[in-house]
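Give me structure tokens for this 340-residue protein.
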Amino acid sequence: MKRETPTILSRPYEQYRRTEFEHQLARIRIYYTVFCLAVVFAALKYLEISLAALILFTSAALLYGFVRYLKPAYVSENRRLPPAIDLLDFLFIALLIYITGGIRSFFHVAYAMPVCGGIVRFGLKAGMVGYAVALGITGLMYFINTGNPTASLSIHIIAGVGTLAFAAWMVGLLSEKEWKLRDEIYLSSITDHLSGLYNSNYLRARIKEEIERCSRQNTGFALSFIDLDNFKLVNDQHGHLVGDRVLRQVADIFDENIRKSDVLARYGGDEFVLLMPGTGRERAEKVMQRIEDAVSTSTFIKNIKIGLSSGVVIFPEDGDSLDKLLTAADVRMYEKKGAR
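Here you go.
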């Protein structure tokens, strides 16, 4: 069956991954910042925040936002900057802890956010470095030992449980994005990006799987080798861009005339191979005749007319291995082409 060309192909994987993750993290950071401000507001009666501390915190928040969100392209394209810029998260959290009680603050748990984010994005080593940074800042807070009174137990619980919920959301969201990116990479590896059909590597693997399955179950399948007639003239007379569009149109016609269980691949150039599981010779010939009629009666770009020739073989009668089947199908296709 035909698939859409994966988006990931347009950019290097690591750059695409960093950009996608940064977009997700930006949203989570904004929501978590709002949550933190709400907790601080709820705990104001326990805090002794000076005007100077408030100005310092506001200035730091503005600077943090500028670096984090007004330079996204530079951050995402620089290979070394993203891990280093995460230190800003630790410093911003340290400032938040400082103005909400220092060593007695209810926001020490906030370090879970950059630590978990570092593990998901850059691996365990980055997470351990983040954990060490958090321990170092906590030790510094112990020696500074600011004297704000301890907030109520409910504030500590809200800050802790809320932060853990945000951390779980972040890990889940980034993990889901990671799996989606891996799926795109897999689709990229099995797709012919001109036609949108499967490529020859995937086809060969699927034929081998079908041979093994049919050998165990004592069943068979059909294989057809397809070649477009005089396609070289299309490229010579109209150019390769037109030829590429014709190939895509032909692939669409093929796709409309096969089952979902069939495997259609572009084998190379203007050659295609169709694997039809559980199909006998008579039905396979009818399928190919239907496809041939559909192609020959279609009018392509620039009123181009295209014909095709195909050779059908059956496993195991015409061959009991991948190479034997493909060779036999290729021979029959050329015999049919030569008989015209």
